[in-house]
Amino acid sequence: MPVWYHDSYTEGIDQNARFPRDRYRLLRERLSHLQDIGLVNIEEPKPIDTESLLLAHDEDFVNRFLGGILDSKERRRIGLEPWTEAFVPRTLRIMGGAVEALEHVTRFGGIAGNMAGGTHHSHRSFGSGYCVFNDLAVCALRAREVDGYARVAVLDLDVHQGDGTATILRGEEGVVTISVHCEGNFPFRKAESDHDLPLPIGTGDEGYLEAVEQALAIVSDFSPDILLFQAGVDGLEADALGKLSLSRRGMMARNHLVFSQLGGITPCVFFMGGGYSNPIEHTVDAFYDLFEVAARFNTEFRIT
Asked: What is the pLDDT of residue 22?
C-alpha cells in the first residue's frame, strides 16, 4: 500500500510551535517495519499545483498564502506560528501527497494514505485550527471534476467536526459529507454537514462505535464510487484535545469497521487528522495501528 511522506511534514513546522510536529517523524520511523515486510511503500510527494487548490479555495486566499502576506489575525487563526520559510512548501507537499494518493487509487483501486493532512477546518477563504488548505475538499472536487467520480463520500471520524469541509462542499452535486464528532469541542460554532452525528463528552468506545456504524450505514446507502476517510485519533482518552474517552482498542475497532466495508471494491484515500496525546507516543501508536490495518486490508483485497 502506498503512503506519502516528506521530511518537511515535520521540519516545516517551527520547533517552538505548540503543534506536536514530531508525531510525523516518529510515525515514519515506526512504519519502516511495515515497509521492510512489504506492507507499505513510502512515496515522496511533489507540491500540489495551484489549479487544484483553486477547486476548493478562493484565488485571493491562495495567492496571499503563497506570497507570505497573510495578516497576523489570519496566521493566528491557523495557529502554527511561528512560521518558517519551509512552511509554505510543507503545506504544498502535504496537499500534493493527498492528491497523489487520490490519483493512485483512481488508477489502481485499493487503499492509499497520506502521513499528514486531514485538514478539515480550512474554509474556502481562510485557514483555521492548524489547517491551511482543505485536502479533503480539494480531493473530493478533484475526484469529481478531474477523475470522473460521480459519487464521492467524505467520512470524517476526527473528534472535531469537519466544519471547513462541510462549508466548502455544501450543495456540491454527487458529494456527501458525514461527520462523527464530540459536540462539546472545537469548533464551538458548528457548520452543517450533510450528516452530522454529534456525541456527548466522555462517550467512550461503545457509543462511539455505534455512531461509526450509523455513519457507515449512511455511506452504504449513498453507494459511493470513492471514499475519503478522515481518520483522526484525537478522540483517545490520553489526547489533550479529545473529550470522547476512547481506548486504543476502540480506535482499532473503528478502523476495522471502515476498511472492512470497502470490500475490495470502493477505492479509499485516508488522511491522518488530529492527534495530540501526552505523551505523544499514544498518538503515534494509534496512527501506526491505522496504517497497519489499512495495509493489511489492502493486501487482503489483493490490490498493489
From this structure: 95
